[in-house]
Amino acid sequence: MARPSVGYMRRGIVPPYLLSRIAEQAPPTFSVAAEAARRALTLDAPLRTRARLSLSVDETDGLVAEMLDAPDRRIHDAQNREELPGVIVRREGEEPTGDVAADEAYDGLGSTFALFSEVYGRNSIDDAGLRLDGTVHYGRNYDNAFWDGGRMVFGDGDGEIFARFTGSVSVIGHELAHGVTQYTANLVYQGQPGALNESVSDVFGALVEQYLFSQDVEQATWLIGEGLFTPQVEGRALRSMSAPGTAYDDDVLGRDPQPGHMRDYIDTVDDNGGVHLNSGIPNRAFYLTAVALGGFAWERAGQIWYDTITAELSPTADFAAFAAATLDAAAQRYGEDSEEVAAVRGGWNGVGIDVERQQ
Amino acid sequence: MSSGSSDDAPRLVLVVARSGGFAGLTRRWRVEVRDEADAARWRPLVDACPWEASAPSAVPDSSGPASPGPGASAPGASAPGTSARDGFVYRISLADTTAPGARPGAPQERTATVPESSLDGPWRALVERVQDEGQAVPAGRRGSAVER
Ligand SMILES: [Zn+2]
Question: Are B78 and A149 within 8 A, CB to CB?
């Protein structure tokens, strides 16, 4: 008889009412499922906020029940005021609200949870099932999305330059990844470590989108915030990871200022020392690494970056220190002479950063 | 327009530069105050702001290691030094030719940096007034969207 186990699953979140029904009414032939459902509902409650039950039949016709981490989402509506959290409009497992922004936030948080849980085995932002809180309709014509240290907040945009910020799952993934960084490497939000903090969010934001749509490195857009500009703006997205500096070129907004190489590094006092500008450099290093490895970027390049932020990394790491840490992570997981190590080294070299292992 | 010491030189020039945010786009708004009646209307707003406490060198670099964990994630807590990310950063610049010791062509200059999470009270009042009454300064086709 198969035993409940933790494993991978892409689809099929079992709502609590169904878990209850399985637990209470499953026929004797489904005793494993019933037991797993009871565990999901009761025994595990203090350990995990949510769990999913996956039922399948294996080669020997045994019923396989898998216990999986599941998100616990809560979406609020700020009703166009700049006050948090706003009124609650959708809890985990509830039906869509019909409000596009609220439902996009709910779905995007689910897609982000799925990447971290199913690919990297991370149970939410803190790896302990932290609830995912989001607020939509923040402010009036508000041109931004941000992470306030505990929740993701999304504006509707002004309608002339920006549309609503929930419109791209890469943005939702970016904000949630700020939470992951806060609980892991905790890179300080200034200068180079700040640009790395931004880049990590772009990397995982892009990977959320690629994982959701099953895109390999060739199919992926490598754009951050595609569709956030209104049609009046001459631009495809807010940032390009493959070609930083080319995402937009518009009469009103000017040109995308991101550098993609150390020779173009921007020294500025604005934007916490250019954290959203110089992030183009590590963004492109990740892109180059992923393309060199081919296939799905979340599998090896993403794993190396995930290993890097969850290992010993200084909160004040600069680009060179972070690059060395990615090389260490690649060597530890795939071996000194692996193609992964070569790809990582090539990625950083491609943006003007020579990198050698620290350890 | 804004330089020189001619009679029509502005008494006050206020510039708000909003950088950062998810998009990393810098936007600017500018107000030039020429007649004394207008200046009298602006001065209380300007003087109410804590310029010294918000001078760029006085502002924490918002990097004080925000300790990870539940304590670091109180919703709404997003002052500098906490874990707020992608918030706007406002840089407010004032050139005042009527301040003590200043004269046309040699204004007293003051600059403050205020993160969005701290933009309340007099700073919010001043910034919103500049955005409402000032001219948006376009980044333009030629220039990049950032001031280097
Ligand atoms: Zn960010």
Answer: yes
